[in-house]
Design brief:
alpha/beta; Rossmann fold; seven-stranded mixed beta sheet; three-stranded antiparallel beta sheet; 10 strands; 37% helix
């Protein structure tokens, strides 16, 4: 990374993994420099869209939509379009999911600037940020990728990696999605992994942002993201192609992982390191795959040490 140019930035763009919402990054954002404007990108179908929004595409077949959307090129365009909304600039690349995109402002006194942002992504969100920088060089001044999802060949991957993914895909549709109240939802999720290990504020934000009133059910609230749709996201990402052929990103890249990461994360990290040999690997002791939400303060400590390299502001306390 030493030969890559350092560009000063005062914006941080965060993108969570599948099944999570951007507002869950608020506890992390609050511990970063207050002069840093932090914005979050949400996945399609994950969060309620604002009333005043872009025309929403009619999705008649989710399988077809996800097959077209979960590609390196479309993910890159989705991130580019998100950045255009944040900066108020025109986006020259059309995203198939533009009408399904929700941006969240995560820091107080956030402001629109024209500087290159820093990217921080979790799991599939990290993969999307990488695709954007690789296909559209110069989008980011630096990338911090926490356990970016990258399986070069699902069929050829180690059996334990396949088993971990298949278990997630098959179990997800059977998880509970309807509740009598937000309080019941919090009690339910808070007693089960991975939410049981999460920071309470992150859990509160997940429940608040992920539930909607359900007038067609005896239960009062339902998750916005249908569990079958979530499983389809996982399945598509496990087989996404094109990552191995991505050009090497032009900005510094930090590959972050927890010491308690699972097999998929370890496999993905190895693939990412092969793809980006000059990246820097950071192993955070005691953290698992959900580190940004289970230990936001620890994650902030790590970022506070490194972000000044790309913000030009030495005081990040």
């Amino acid at each position: 990374m030493d030969n890559k140019q350092t560009v000063s930035s005062d914006r941080l763009i965060v993108f969570p993994g599948i099944g999570f919402v951007a507002k869950m990054f608020v506890p992390l954002a609050k511990k970063l420099n207050p002069n840093l404007s932090t914005y979050g990108i949400n996945w399609p179908f994950h969060a309620a869209l604002p009333t005043a929004h872009l025309p929403r595409p009619e999705v008649r077949d989710e399988d077809v939509f996800l097959e077209q959307f979960v590609t390196t090129e479309e993910l890159a365009k989705y991130v580019l379009f998100a950045l255009s909304l944040i900066t108020g600039s025109e986006c020259t690349q059309e995203s198939k999911a533009a009408g399904l995109l929700k941006i969240d402002t995560l820091s107080e006194n956030a402001r629109k600037t024209s500087s290159q942002p820093i990217g921080f992504g979790h799991s599939a969100g990290a993969t999307a940020l990488l695709a954007c920088e690789s296909l559209y060089p110069g989008t980011f001044s630096a990338l911090f990728l926490y356990e970016a999802l990258f399986i070069t060949d699902f069929a050829a991957a180690p059996r334990e990696v396949n088993d971990e993914i298949l278990s997630l895909v098959t179990r997800t549709p059977h998880r509970r999605s309807a509740f009598a109240s937000p309080e019941e939802a919090k009690s339910h999720f808070g007693s089960r992994m991975p939410f049981a290990s999460m920071d309470e504020t992150c859990l509160d934000l997940y429940v608040r942002e992920s539930l909607q009133h359900d007038n067609d059910s005896s239960q009062g609230f339902r998750l916005i993201l249908d569990k079958e749709t979530e499983a389809k996201f996982y399945s598509r990402f496990a087989e996404i192609g094109g990552i191995s052929e991505l050009p090497r990103p032009s900005c510094p890249v930090y590959l972050m992982t927890g010491s308690e990461a699972g097999r998929v994360a370890a496999h993905s990290l190895s693939n990412m390191k092969n793809l980006i040999p000059d990246s820097r690997v950071l192993v955070l002791d005691g953290l698992d795959h959900f580190g940004p939400f289970s230990a936001p303060m620890r994650m902030a400590e790590v970022l506070n040490e490194l972000l000044p390299l790309y913000t030009g502001k030495p005081d990040f306390t």
